[in-house]
Specification:
Order of helices and strands: EEEEH
Shape: elongated
Low-confidence stretches: 63-74
Strand content: 35-45%
Structural class: alpha+beta
Largest sheet: 4 strands, antiparallel
Distance between the termini: 39 Å
Radius of gyration: 15 Å
Helix content: 25-40%
Mean pLDDT: 82
Length: 74
């Protein structure tokens, strides 16, 4: 099992890859303030690639939102 976290703005996002069976499939779980994203993959590299894509989406979404909040004085 692989367990990691990253920050998306002020939100802590936790993710993990676990083997469902001895030789897969592999479950990617991404847990965030709004809920969870769970997907299954035939290999660990495929699950890790998807995690990178989701992390980029989280980071991109937060980056676009934060300057607006700062400009509004929040």
């Amino acid at each position: 099992m692989t367990l990691n976290v990253f920050l998306a703005g002020q939100d802590l996002v936790r993710w993990e890859v676990t083997a469902v069976g001895a030789e897969g499939p592999y479950r990617l779980g991404v847990y965030h303030a709004g809920g969870a994203i769970v997907e299954y993959f035939p290999s660990v590299p495929a699950a890790l690639q998807r995690e990178r894509e989701l992390e980029e989406l989280f980071m991109g979404g937060r980056a676009a939102h934060e300057p607006v909040s700062m400009a509004a004085g929040q």
